[in-house]
Amino acid sequence: MALLGHRAHLVHDERFKAAMETMADAVAATPQIVNAEVPGQGWNAMAELSPRHPSSD
After folding, report:
1. Is 0.70 topped by the overall pTM?
2. CA separation (Å) from 48 to 17, 42, 45, 51?
3. pLDDT the model gives residue 1
4. To pair with 52 at 20 to 30 A between CA atoms, which of 21, 24, 41, 46?
5. Which long-range contacts (CB under 8 A, 24 or more apart) does 4-12 make?
């Protein structure tokens, strides 16, 4: 669950706080979200998006 601890740290980051302050003027209502824990570790490739011109790394 190290990733969850990392995420909790992000909400205390000054950049995150600044972004939330800026976005408060851009929304008409509090956004709705889905919060769920899923099994596994790390990130998987996003199925909906891939680069048109992939890097040659």
Report:
1. no
2. 29, 18, 9, 11
3. 41
4. 41
5. 4/37
CB-based contact 49:11 (threshold 8 Å): no
User: Residue 7's pLDDT band (boundaries 50, 70, 90)?
Assistant: low
Share of the chain above pLDDT 90, in %: 26
Annotate 16-38 with b (16+ C-beta within 10 A) or e (fewer). eeeeeeeeeeeeeeeeeeeeeee
Q: DSSP assignment, residue 41?
A: S
SS3 7: helix
